[in-house]
Amino acid sequence: MAEYHLTTPISEEDARKLRVGDIVYVSGEHVYTARDEAHQRALELYEKGEKPPVDFEGSVVYHVGPVAWQKDGKWQIVSAGPTTSIRMELFEDEFLRKYRARIIIGKGGMGPKTLAALKEVGAVYCSFTGGCGALAAKGLKEVRAYEWQDLGMPEALWVITAENFGPLLVTMDSHGNSLHDEMDRKVAARKPEVYAKIGVTE
Amino acid sequence: MAATVLPNDVEKALRDAYERETNPTARTQLEAILKNIDIARTGIPMCQDTGIMIFYVKVGDKFPYIGEIRDALTKATIKATAEVPLRPNAVNPIVGGNSGNNVGEKIPWINWEIVSGDSVEITAFPKGGGSENVCILGMLKPGVGLKGVKKLVVDNAMSYMGKACAPNIIGIGIGGGSDIALKIAKQQLLRPLDDHHPDPEVAKIEEELKEAINATGIGPMGLGGDTTVLAVKVDYAMRHPASLPVGVAVQCWAARRSTAVITKDLEVKYLTHPLEGE
Known about the structure:
The complex is a heterodimer. By secondary structure, chain A is of the alpha/beta class. Helices cover 31% and strands 31% of the residues of chain A. Chain A has one domain (3-197): Fe-S hydro-lyase, tartrate dehydratase beta-type, catalytic domain (fumarase), CATH 3.20.130. In chain A, helix 3 packs parallel to helix 4. Chain B is α+β, with helices and mostly antiparallel strands. Chain B is built from seven helices and nine strands, in the order ααβαββαβαβααββββ. The interface between A and B is large, with 48 and 50 residues.
């Protein structure tokens, strides 16, 4: 379990160094929030040959619907823990291939399509501890822009400067490893032992 | 404070879990949770999902302001949404759209109970969507017995793994009917984590299920570890001879609940979050 402190934009080489079990802290100006609707809009723009308002290459894309408020005319992130990433499995692989983000952050892990794209593109999926909205907000220092406001506060594209945002745990890497798949296998293997404790069989 | 400060029993259970935990990945997750609790204490919602507003109200039959409780809780919800702030989470399922202030048709939802006395006890229970999405109801065949009940609970835990932000608290309601089983299950989430069911037979089931689910190794956030549940709480009602309903309510580690008592003279005492000097 190595610990890395990375600054955006993150290179493919740096992303490929990361392995499942490593801890990452991220700083820099290329940190964006995106949930279902922001992913869809980014892909629609690509199809139309138009550019989104930010450059996703080398960026960190965070699956989150934050609580934010405006103080003295400036937006601030108040609480921003991760949302369930598997919803984005529908389009994350295409998003990675087209926009080359290097770190996807969320909770619960993602599926085989995303795992294959991480390998192909040279990127990782990191888990941030679910429910830790206050801790996350501490690392999301500054809101530089609030794009796609028509999607609403949780689904909009928040453009953020991060400072030591983490700890992020690498749970899917660019070498085909997924801690989530490993956990599914481990728990399945323990099933007979668990059943024995409540006196039932398959 | 329901959104920013955990009740003492929940925080203690999480700290104890961190002390006991042997899995290094699980320790990183529990450490982040404990750090988050400390930051949130300064007045920040600990989780961005501040839930949909549900209250449990035990009102004394002689409390003089019974008719004003609903209006007061609705106004309090709107006020807290702006001032804490809370995430607007009340969405219209028919025409779409978010009300923006956490109130709307039937929300806040109030669970009423009438007791004897002249005061009212109100519990705010903001529960996130992630753990709500893995609550289930099983209408079992009575022939499967208690073993079938236990299997349902354990199988459910192994299917959602860490998706409900483990370590979880699981509430189980057995019997009554479909709605009653789920209602009892949810009420169990309000019990202090360190209590035991007064009936030793039920207390035994609680322990047995806790041990079995922790033996899965699912761990905090489903990333592996010794602590998958902090507690399992069970209660029951008599059942129909032909039915064995089982409600399973799942709560994330951010088990936020806040209880206050208001007397007939409108004096407030905060039970879960006492003010300084109380």
